[in-house]
Amino acid sequence: WVVEVDPKTGKAKKHIALGRCAHECATVKELEDGRLVVYTGDDKVNECLYKFVGSQPGSLSEGTLYVANLVLGKWASLDYDEQEVLQKKFKNQTDVLINLRLAARMVGGTALDRPEDIEIDPLNGNVLVALTNNTTVGNYFGSILKIEEAEGRHEALTFKSDTFLAGGPETGFACPDNMAFDLAGNLWFTSDMSGSLMNREPYKEFMNNGLFVVPRSGPQAGEVLQIASAPNDAELTGPWFSPDGKTLFLSVQHPGENSLSL
Predict the structure, then answer these.
(1) In the structure, what pLDDT confidence band is assigned to residue 257 with cuts at 50, 70 and 90?
(2) pLDDT in tens, 59-79
(3) pTM above the 0.85 mark?
(4) Are 124 and 38 contacting, i.e. CB atoms less than 8 angstroms apart?
(5) What distance in Å separates the CA atoms of residue 143 and residue 163, rounded to the nearest whole number?
(6) Spacing of C-alpha 147 from chain mean position
(7) Which of 81, 120, 201, 261 would you label with 104, given CA atoms 20 to 30 Å apart?
(8) Edge-to-edge strands of the sheet including 115-120?
(9) CA–CA distance from 112 to each of 27, 201, 249 (Å)?
(10) Does residue 198 have a pLDDT over 90?
(11) How many Å is the maximal CA-CA distance in the chain?
C-alpha cells in the first residue's frame, strides 16, 4: 500500500484507493480544479502501470483507479461498479484493490517490463516511466516509456505511448530506475543493474551502475551522458534537486553487498 507521512507531525495515512502492489513510486499531479492524479507502477516483471484520478479536490480516497492498456491507448477502469467482469470475481471494491494485479489483468492491463519510477516532464506534461528490464521476454537493458495524455490532460482516459529511450550498448546505459528533471527540463536518471550480474554478461560493458543526464538543448540534446559512477555493487537512487537547482542529492544503496567479509 502507499502510505503518506506528514513529516511535521509523523501522522501516517494508508491510501487504500491506490491499490495494493509493489509500488515503486506515487507521482502526484494537481489539476487546476484541485483534484489529484497519481501515477504509480508495480515494480515486478510483467506487471502494470496505474493512474488514480480523484473526484474531490485534495482527496486520495475519493476517485477512480485505472490501469494502462498500451495496445488500445486507454486507461481501463478498476471500479467494481463499472466493470461486470470484476463483479463476477470479487466481493466489492476493497477486494479488487487488495487483489490489484489479478483485477488489472481482467480489465486488460498491459504487462510491462518492471515499471519503477514515474516523472512528469515539466515542459510538455508527458509522463515518463522507467521500465527497468524483463529477462522473461529477453529485455535485459530496459527502456523509458513515454505517455502522452490526450490533449495534455492528466485526467484523460486515452493516450499515446512510445519508447522515449531504449537501454543498450547504443545508448550506453542499462536498467533505468529513478528519474528527476532539473530546472531547465533536462532528464536525469539512475540505473539499477543487479549486484549479482554487474560487470558480468550481458552487463559487463556497462560496468557499475551510474547517474545519467539527457540534455534538453545544445549540441548534445537528446544524447545520454553519464555523469557519475556508483561504488561497487551499489545503485544510486532518489535523485532530487535543491530548490535553486544547484545541488543534486542521491542515495547510495547497498555498496559492497557482494564483497567477501573478512
Answers:
(1) confident
(2) 999 999 999 999 999 999 999
(3) yes
(4) no
(5) 7
(6) 11
(7) 120
(8) 115-120, 127-131, 143-149, 159-166
(9) 18, 23, 29
(10) no
(11) 60
235 φ, ψ to 5°?
Answer: -130, 145
Please list the residues that pair with 158 across neighbouring strands: 74
Structure confidence by residue, pLDDT tens digits, 81-131:
999 999 999 999 999 999 999 999 999 999 999 999 999 999 999 999 999
Grid cell locating 172: 550506453
Structure letter (DSSP) for residue 208: S
Q: Tell whether omega for the bond before 176 is within 30 degrees of 0, i.e. cis.
A: no
Neighbour-count burial for 1-34, b at 16+ CB within 10 Å, e otherwise: ebeeeeeeeeeeeebebbbbbebbbbbebeeeee
Q: Which stretches of the chain are DSSP H helices?
A: 84-89, 93-98, 100-106
Burial of 98 (0-12, 13-18, 19+ CB in 10 A): middle
Among 232, 126, 239, which residue's Cα sits nearest to residue 177?
A: 239
Q: Which amino acid is present at 42? A: D
Secondary structure element (H or E) that encloses residue 253, with its range: strand 248-253
Q: Are 173 and 167 in contact (CB under 8 A)?
A: yes
For the cut 90, the answer to whether the pLDDT of residue 207 exceeds it is yes
Per the listing, cell 544547484 goes with 246
DSSP class of 96: H
* Direct distance between the N- and C-terminal alpha carbons of the chain, in angstroms, rounded to an integer: 39
